[in-house]
Amino acid sequence: MRIAIVDSGVHAAHPHVNGVAGGIGIGFEDYIDRLGHGTCVTAVIREKAPEAELYAVKIFDRKLAASIDKLVAALRWAVEQKMNLVNLSLGTTNQNHAAILSEVVAEAVAAGVRIVAAYEDAGTRWLPGSLPGVVPVLLDFSVDRDTVEPCPLGNGQTAYRASGYPRPMPGVAPEQNLKGISFAVANVTGVLGRIECRER
Question: What is the pLDDT of residues 51-89, one digit of tens each?
C-alpha cells in the first residue's frame, strides 16, 4: 500500500510519523516540512495505516499556497510512481482549473490511483474533490476519529463523512490543536489505507 501525501512535506523524524518511504519536492530541493501542516496530516494517516508506505510530495513551503502547475505535477508524479492512494488535504475553488484537474484525475483513475480530497466545506465546492473519479470527503466533527461514514451524494457518487480532528497531542486540547477539512481528508485516507492493507 503506497500513499502519496501532497502537502507541505514532512518532518519524517517526528514520533507520530516514524519515517517515510520517500518523497519529492515539486520545485523544491527537499521535502522537509517547514510549516507543520504536512507532518500533522501524515501523522493522521500513519496512525490509521501503520503498515502503509508513505511518500511526501511537497508543493508548499513557507505558506499554504501553491500554483495549479505544482498540484498537477504532484498528481502526475503519484501516477507515475504507481501510488495506490493520494491524500489531498488541499484544494481550490477556482473553476478555471476544472479542465486541467479533470484531465489529471482521469489519468489517475485510468492508472488505478485513488485521489482523496475535500468535496465541500461550509457550502463551498472544492476542486478536485468535487470532480468525478475522486474520493469525496465531507467534514463532520460528530464522527469518531477512527471511523468514516459513507454518504450518498445523489449524483451516483458516495462521499465519506469524517472527523476534522488530527491525531491527539498529549497535553493539548483538541479545540486548541489544528483541525478542519484537511484532517477529515487525512482521516478518510488513513481508514481506506488500513482497509486496503488488510485486504492485500
Answer: 999 999 999 988 878 889 999 999 999 999 999 999 999
Report the C-alpha gap between 48 and 98 in whole angstroms.
Answer: 31
Helices (H) and strands (E) in the chain, counts: 4, 9
Neighbours of 6 (CB within 10 A): 28
Q: Distance between CA 153 and CA 114 in Å, rounded? A: 18
What separation in angstroms does the CA of 9 have from each of 35, 78, 112, 146?
8, 14, 24, 24
Question: DSSP state, 113?
Answer: P
The amino acid present at 93, given as its one-letter code, is T
Residue 15: phi and psi, rounded to 5, are: -60, -25
Could you read off the pLDDT of 80-127 as tens digits, one per residue?
999 999 999 999 999 999 999 999 999 999 999 999 999 987 788 899
Distances (CA, A) of 59 to 46, 63, 77, 151, 159: 20, 10, 12, 30, 26
Q: CA 169 → CA 18, 119, 165, distances in Å? A: 15, 27, 11
| pTM score above 0.85 | yes
Strand boundaries in 12-155, DSSP class E = 22-25, 53-58, 85-88, 114-121, 124-125, 135-139, 149-152
